[in-house]
């Protein structure tokens, strides 16, 4: 079988911790051929550590050697690099969020369509075992029509103190774009892409802009911190559906908490851990699941789905048009917070 030649662009944390190890587990399908980073020393270090044969200082040169790339740079460069790769006939898995703006996301989709290449985004929560079970339960009508969705992506005092996460110019935002986006994406996917009609949002930065913070994830500079550390939103969709959304890096709460729960007409569910809430035989009826198969390697599942899609052997789990809608909603939340009014979509 022909191996897919894979290149890595941006050899930092997520490339080394998730993508490269996942591709290495797929040796029967992928050959890690090349790596590129503006920080050449980091590219060389990754190449040595993972035995990647080619290091490039320029991504245009890398495109000539590969069939596909995985983009792991700060968000500001996602669209520019993805469009260049797609125009060179190279398939793209781009880390989340898809890009800084909806316009950039659309340019990526247009390039993928024009050059008939595969484009997917690293919304890996969809590949998690619980998420897959929840999707099947909803498709099989266990909860009936969804009505109300609650999302909480909450951390207590964990502003990432490394990398460029607190830099608006390079990342476009903070807790929403970094963490909240995963749960927002997962909720939209589970709800089968409902059409949003109105968004009310508030973004906060006051805690992290105050000097002397107690922070569990390293140190950051409160003076240069210029992104959100806490975001709330109320999203109204067509057909009466609504979502209460909250995410934070640094809330003053008892403990970290990742919640996605959906109440439908006939039942409800929570995704983490997966539980189903129904009423049967005159009683309230709760179901838990015993997930089989050991540790949940969602990074591997993400990599395999992308590789198989490039080979024409699978359909993408994360379609780029869906990822664009996440960015569109995040833009609306930020716009609502800035103007103090709701945004009609
Ligand atoms: N899916 C997830 O859960 C998850 C987790 C962490 C990060 N991410 C995403 O991954 C991306 C990278 O994050 P990270 O934590 O690996 O950051 P990082 O800072 O550890 O690594 C980024 C790397 O990109 C390089 N780089 C910067 N500009 C570049 C350019 N123009 N061309 C080539 N290389 C460039 C940097 O030198 C650095 O080595 C971000 O988009 C982030 O949102 C996703």
Automatic annotation (TrEMBL):
InterPro entries: Gfo/Idh/MocA-like_OxRdtase_N, Gfo/Idh/MocA_Oxidoreductase, GFO_IDH_MocA-like_dom, NAD(P)-bd_dom_sf. Residues 132-269 form the GFO/IDH/MocA-like oxidoreductase domain. Transmembrane segments: none annotated. It comes from the Bacteria. Residues 5-123 form the Gfo/Idh/MocA-like oxidoreductase N-terminal domain. It holds the Pfam family GFO_IDH_MocA. This is Gfo/Idh/MocA family oxidoreductase. It comes from Halobacillus salinarum.
